[in-house]
Design a protein that fits this description.
The protein is of the alpha/beta class. Helices cover about 15% and strands about 30% of the residues. It contains 3 helices and 22 strands. The strands form 5 sheets. It has a 7-stranded mixed beta sheet with strand order 4-7-10-15-18-21-22. The chain is globular, with a radius of gyration of 22 Å.
């Protein structure tokens, strides 16, 4: 076999160009992009949150979790007890965020919650992790916006610089390892690794007793 030609009984047969032509004729036209249907909140509300986010969350000098939790609640987030939010965290829209009890969110984590993100009790989101709710329809020339929620159930651990894609459900006590990409559903107590992440072993949590 050589590029573009398949040999059968030493007689060359050229590949059909029909599929290739269909692919190559389609083009993205970003001038027609329209996400006017997507309304995450008023411009005033988003503008006030933008500056609040910069001052209280992205700002590496603010080390006090209490003030951050208070601000999140003020802007409509549901936040439980004992939540620790490290410096440099970036949150898109707090009114699309629900955080359980005793959750840790590490430095420079990015919660890009264009849709709802639910974080259960005792979840750890490590440094530089990216929770991504937004995507684009790459098959359409208009590159339409797609948003899907993310759910991190109780005891989940998202490793440093890992990415959680739109629509992902991380079931109870599952782990996404460092620099991995989660898609679909992560089974309970499963440890996932890679791009895209696959299950590599079971998580065993030993009792203190």
């Amino acid at each position: 076999m050589t590029d573009g030609v398949i040999f059968v009984n030493l007689k060359p047969i050229s590949r059909s160009n029909t599929v290739t032509d269909q692919i190559m004729n389609g083009k993205t036209d970003l001038s027609k992009y329209d996400n006017s249907w997507y309304r995450p909140g008023s411009k005033v509300k988003r503008g006030i949150w933008y500056f609040t986010n910069v001052v209280f969350f992205i700002n590496p000098l603010n080390i006090w979790s209490g003030s951050k939790v208070a601000m999140l609640r003020l802007f409509g987030a549901k936040v439980g007890r004992g939540v620790i939010i490290k410096p440099g965290v970036n949150i898109k829209y707090p009114w699309n965020l629900e955080i359980g009890n005793h959750v840790w969110i590490g430095e420079r984590a990015w919660i890009d919650n264009l849709d709802n993100i639910t974080i259960g009790d005792n979840v750890c989101v490590s440094q530089g992790a990216f929770l991504l709710c937004g995507n684009h329809h790459y098959k359409k020339p208009t590159f339409d916006l797609i948003v899907q929620p993310i759910v991190l159930e109780e005891g989940v651990w998202i490793g440093a610089r890992a990415i959680v894609a739109p629509g992902v459900q991380c079931k109870s006590h599952s782990i996404l390892t460092v620099n991995s990409l989660a898609q679909g559903v992560l089974e309970p107590y499963g440890i996932y690794q890679g791009v895209p992440a696959v299950k590599i072993r079971e998580r065993i949590v030993k009792s203190d007793k």
